[in-house]
């Protein structure tokens, strides 16, 4: 067993760490043994564990867990980038969320992480032309997690959504890599136009709680959007915007706002 775990760690360090943490968690809290075994220790890979968790969360009287699990297994087998993005998301949550102390926490407990993985399966279905099934995944994700992401939206890897209540991301929105956002963020449109109508969020952007970014505008790489702001105009890279409507109030204050998670505007920043 030790040799097997060592080999696993060399091939897939994220999954190996989750398995190790799961073993420790069962010892510390035996009452969660069933949950942890079914969710993690019974599975040979992160991909299979994700399929289990997603199908369990999204299943209802209209779509069984078994059917959803087969859909997820097909998605992860067809597109390895889905699970690689999930690994990056786990690391992102661990590094940026002070409430996250282990890799297994997002997989088991954090609805922001789980909702993003559901979106990734829905987006895969959308790209396969299976739009109605993708809409079903979107609907169930919204009902289960309070996170409503259109399956056609394009979202990068290393995403951290903290608390993840009332997140809305529209159909033509684009979110870059290593983006962090807090609860009640909206990436929405400004009217009934049917073309490209949603924001384009650059890499490394931090979006504070309750912020609304509306319209086909770009938020430049490594910028900060202050909590409660309404952004209606483009934001240059490495700037901080705040207010209703949002205005530039300073520099971003650091090279990677989404990683530092510093939301305080300091004098001269």
Automatic annotation (TrEMBL):
Assigned GO CC terms: cytoplasm
Biological process according to GO: cysteine biosynthetic process from serine
Pathways per UniProt: Amino-acid biosynthesis; L-cysteine biosynthesis; L-cysteine from L-serine: step 1/2
SUPFAM superfamilies cross-referenced by the UniProt entry: Trimeric LpxA-like enzymes
UniProt entry keywords in alphabetical sequence: Acyltransferase, Amino-acid biosynthesis, Repeat, Transferase
EC number in record: 2.3.1.30
Pfam families in the cross-refs: Hexapep, SATase_N
Record-linked CDD domains: LbH_SAT
Domain Serine acetyltransferase N-terminal: 14-118
SMART domains cross-referenced by the UniProt entry: SATase_N
Keyword GTP-binding: no
Catalyzed reactions: L-serine + acetyl-CoA = O-acetyl-L-serine + CoA
GO molecular function, one term: serine O-acetyltransferase activity
Top-rank lineage group of the source organism: Bacteria
Protein name as annotated: Serine acetyltransferase
């Amino acid at each position: 067993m030790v040799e097997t775990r060592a080999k696993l760690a060399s091939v897939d360090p994220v999954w190996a760490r989750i398995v190790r943490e799961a073993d420790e968690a069962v010892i510390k809290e035996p009452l969660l043994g069933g949950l942890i075994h079914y969710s993690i220790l019974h599975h040979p890979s992160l991909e299979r564990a994700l399929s289990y968790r997603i199908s369990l969360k999204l299943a209802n009287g209209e779509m069984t867990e078994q059917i959803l699990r087969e859909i997820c297994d097909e998605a992860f087998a067809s597109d390895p980038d889905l699970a690689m993005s999930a690994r990056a998301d786990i690391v992102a949550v661990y590094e940026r969320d002070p409430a996250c102390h282990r890799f297994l926490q997002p997989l088991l407990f954090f609805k922001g992480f789980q909702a993003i993985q559901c979106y990734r399966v829905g987006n895969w279905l959308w790209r396969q032309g299976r739009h109605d099934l993708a809409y079903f995944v979107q609907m169930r994700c919204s009902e289960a997690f309070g996170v409503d992401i259109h399956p056609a939206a394009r979202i990068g890897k290393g995403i951290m959504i903290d608390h993840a209540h009332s997140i809305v991301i529209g159909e033509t929105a684009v979110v870059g890599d290593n983006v962090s956002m807090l609860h009640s963020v909206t990436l929405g449109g400004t009217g009934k136009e049917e073309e490209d109508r949603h924001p384009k969020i650059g890499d490394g952007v931090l979006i504070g709680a309750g912020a609304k970014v509306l319209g086909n505008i770009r938020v430049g790489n490594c910028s900060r959007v202050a909590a409660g702001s309404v952004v209606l105009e483009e934001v240059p890279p490495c700037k901080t915007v705040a207010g209703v409507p949002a205005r530039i109030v300073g520099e971003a204050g650091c090279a990677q706002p989404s990683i530092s998670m510093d939301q305080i505007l300091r004098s001269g920043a």
